[in-house]
Amino acid sequence: MAVYWGAACGGCCVSVLDVHEKLFDVVANADLVFWPIALDIKYADVEAMEDKFIDITLFNGAVRNSENEHMAKVLRQKSKLLVAYGSCAHMGGIPGLANFSTKEEILKQVYLKNITTENEDATLPNVSYEVEEGTLTLPKFYNDVRTLDQTVVVDYYMPGCPPQTERLLEVFMAIVSGNELPPKGSVIGAYDKGQCDECTRKKTDNKHIKEFKRPFEIEDDGETCFLEQGVICLGPATRGGCGHRCIEGNAPCRGCYGPPPDVSDPGAKMMSAVATMIDANEPEEIERITNQIVDPAGTFYRFSLPGSILRRKVKESLQ
Amino acid sequence: MDFEPTIVSFLCNWCSYTGADLAGTSRMKYAHNIRIIRVMCSGRIDPIFVLESFKDGADGVLICGCHPGDCHYHEGNYKCLRRYHLLKKYIAQMGIDPGRLHLEWISASEGKQFAELADSFTETVRGLGPCHVKEIIENFA
C-alpha cells in the first residue's frame, strides 16, 4: 500500500494515522511501501518499482504543479488500484478555490504585493536556477488546479475532508478480504443517500427562507434543521457517510463528501434546492434575498470548483 | 466574418414552446441563432442545464416560461425565477457576463413577442461577443 499527497494540507495523511492501533491490522495485511509523511522512501525508489507493484495507492491532494502530476502518473503506473482519497483528489477541494485566480495573479500576490513580503529584487520562483554547485530546480506551478481524475485514470473515489477513518478501515478490509469490489469509477466509503437522510435534526416541509443568515446570526436550538433557520447547509446535495459530524457540532454541512450518485455538479444542485426555498415571488424581493448569499460560488463550490462543470473562473488573460 | 452567437433556449411546453410554435406557424422571421429545447416546465430547468450549455459552447442561454400565475403546475415558474436570480449571481462570479443568461415570460399567444425576444437577445449576446468557457475548459491545465 502507498499513500501520497499532492496539493493537500496533510489532513488526509493524518486521517490514515488516525486508525490508531488498527494500524496493526493494516500492516498485518499490507506493507506500506511509500508514504512521505511517515516513511523515508524516495521518489526514485517508487520509480524503480515494477509496474503494478503497489496494490492500493491512496492519493490525496489536488494536482497543482508538475511534481503532483509526475507522481500521479508514476503511481498510476505502479498501482493496481488508484484511489482518489479525500476532497482535493476527488473534486479539487480547498486548494481548488485557487481557480478563481490565475497563476500570474497568485504569484504576484504572494511574492510581490503581499504586505508582509519583502522582495526588493522582485524575484519570482523559477523552474531552474544555476548556482556554482549546479542547477537547482523547482516544480512548475500550473495555472489551473486539477482533480486527480482530470490527470490520470482513477479506480475509486473516497470523498471527505478528510475521509472518515472508520470508512477507510471498512474499505481497506473489504479490499484485503478479497470480496468482490464495486465497479471501477465508484465512490466508496460513503453512502448513496444524502446527508439529510442520516442527519438527526428535526426536519419539516417548512423550508421558506425570507432571510439568509450566517451561523452566528441565529440562536440555534440544536434541534431544528439549519435550512429552516435560514442558514445554508449543503446537506441536501451532499453524500452521507461522514457521520454528519459538523452538524453534530452545530455547524452546517459544507459539502466535503461531494455529490450523491448521478449528480455532475454539486453546487448547481444545491443552488437549485436553496433557491426554491426563497419565500418570495416578486423579482425585486427575490433579488434582495438572493443578495444575502454573499459568495455563492465559494459557498456552493467550497470543495468542488475544479471538479464542477465550469472548473474555473473565466479570465480575460486566458482567452 | 461577423460573430454569430450560439444561443440555447429552454422553453416550457405549455406556454413558451407553444408561443414559439405560433411564431413559426405564423411564418414570422426571427434570428436563427436560437436553438430551442422543450422542457415540460420552466421549473424543470436545472442550473446544470444552463452550466452545461455554457460548457458546450453556448454564448447565451434564454429561458422562457409561463407568465406568473399561469404555470400549468401552479408554481414551477416561480421556482425557475428564484433559481435564475441565484444562477445569474453565480455566473457573474465565474466571470461570465450575467447578460448572457436571460429569463422572459412568453405565453402561448405571444408568438410575436417570442420572435422579437429572439432577435433582441441575439443582438445583446452578439454585442457581448463570444463566450470563452468552452475554450478555457479545453485548455485547462
Overview of this protein structure:
The complex is a heterodimer of chains A (319) and B (141). With 319 residues, chain A is an alpha/beta fold. Chain A folds into three domains: 2-95 and 144-176, Rossmann fold (3-Layer(aba) Sandwich); 100-141, no CATH class; 195-300, no CATH class. Chain A has helices spanning 11-17, 23-29, 43-47, 66-78, 87-91, 103-113, 165-176, 195-198, 245-248, 266-276, 283-290, 296-300; strands spanning 2-5, 54-60, 63-65, 79-85, 128-131, 134-137, 141-146, 156-158. In chain A, the strands form three sheets. Chain A has a four-stranded parallel β-sheet with strand order 1-2-4-8. Chain A starts with a strand and ends in a 19-residue tail after the last helix. With 141 residues, chain B is of the alpha/beta class. Chain B has a single domain, classed as Rossmann fold, CATH 3.40.50. A four-stranded parallel β-sheet of chain B has the order 2-1-3-4, with helices on both faces. The mean pLDDT of chain B is 96.
CATH architecture of the largest domain in chain A: 3-Layer(aba) Sandwich
Question: Under the CATH scheme, which class of chain B?
Answer: Alpha Beta
Q: Mean pLDDT score of chain B, rounded?
A: 96
Distance between the termini of chain A: 42 Å
Ordered list of secondary-structure elements with their pairings:
The complex is a heterodimer of chains A (319) and B (141).
Chain A: E1 2-5, H1 11-17, H2 23-29, H3 43-47, E2 54-60, E3 63-65, H4 66-78, E4 79-85, H5 87-91, H6 103-113, E5 128-131, E6 134-137, E7 141-146, E8 156-158, H7 165-176, H8 195-198, H9 245-248, H10 266-276, H11 283-290, H12 296-300
Parallel strand pairs in A: 1-2, 2-4, 4-8
Antiparallel strand pairs in A: 3-7, 5-6
Chain B: E1 7-12, H1 16-25, E2 34-39, H2 47-55, E3 60-65, H3 76-93, E4 101-105, H4 111-128, H5 133-138
Parallel strand pairs in B: 1-2, 1-3, 3-4
Helix pairs in contact in B: 1-4
